Amino acid sequence: MPRNNTPISGGSTLSKREWQFDGWINGVNTFALATELRGTELGQLTNGELYGKRAIRPRRGGSLLGSALSGNEIDGLFQYKEGSVNDIQALSGGVLKKYNTGTGGWDTISGATFTANIS
Predict the structure, then answer these.
(1) Which residue range forms the structural domain that includes residue 104?
(2) 20 to 30 A from 8, CA-CA: which of 32, 74, 86, 91?
C-alpha cells in the first residue's frame, strides 16, 4: 500500500509552514532530555502503549495476580524462564517468592536474602 506523503497544513493558531507527522517510530526515549527528543520519540508514556507506527492507545487491562505479598512493598516483579520453567517471581520485604498458579498465592524461594525496600 503506497504511503500518503501529502504534508498537513497548520491551522490559524499554528505556524504557516507545512509539516508532516510520521509517527513515533522510535518509541519511548526516557534517557534524553526533552530538548534532545526527536519528533519520532516520546519522552514519557504512562498507562498507554504504542500501537502500530502512528498511534497511542490506552494500556490494555490487567488482572489480579494472587494474594498480597508479605512485606511493605514490591521491590521487583519479573518473569523467570529456563527450559520448561516459566515462573512469575517477586521480591518483597527482602524475600524472593514465586507465584503458585494452583493456589493463587506466593511461595517463598529459599536460599538467599535481599535488601528490602530498594529505592
Answers:
(1) 64-119
(2) 32
